[in-house]
Specification:
By secondary structure, this protein is mainly α. The chain is 54% helix and 0% strand. The model has no long low-confidence stretch (mean pLDDT 79).
Length: 133
């Protein structure tokens, strides 16, 4: 999955916390959020009216990125057969971060798990309409 496909899919699944996300989808979305926002983060340390405006823009961008990244994180954990609530391990000093990074970089299972089929297609798949009997 390419950078633009992954970012597009991440934003098309803005509030989708079910299903699975591949490593490339999650890490490209994370990279896009970081690269887009870091220059504005630097404005937090400076003073002046221009920097106040940039700080406000940074705040709005942060809000617009948090939900899709949390959704992608949850789907990423589902891909390695873990609960989306596993992010709470971040509160375990040192060990929690290492465990989460291991899971985030681990290859997902190629077959279906309890969270669904692997979702490596760059576009959101339409659900098939089931026939009524």
């Amino acid at each position: 999955m390419t950078f633009f496909e992954a970012v597009g899919k991440c934003y098309r699944k803005y509030f989708v916390f079910k299903g699975r996300a591949s490593r490339s989808e999650y890490w490209w979305c994370f990279a896009a959020a970081f690269l887009f926002a870091w220059p504005l983060l630097l404005s937090e340390t400076a003073d002046g009216s221009l920097f106040t405006i940039l700080s406000f823009i940074y705040f709005i961008l942060t809000l617009s990125v948090v939900i899709p990244l949390l959704a992608a994180w949850t789907r990423r954990m589902h891909d390695v057969d873990k609960s989306g609530w596993s992010w709470l391990l971040i509160f375990v000093p040192a060990v929690g971060f290492l465990v989460l990074m291991r899971w985030a970089t681990k290859e997902g299972s190629p077959e279906a798990n309890k969270y669904g089929e692997p979702d490596n297609h760059p576009f959101v798949q339409a659900k098939p309409v089931s026939e009524k009997k």
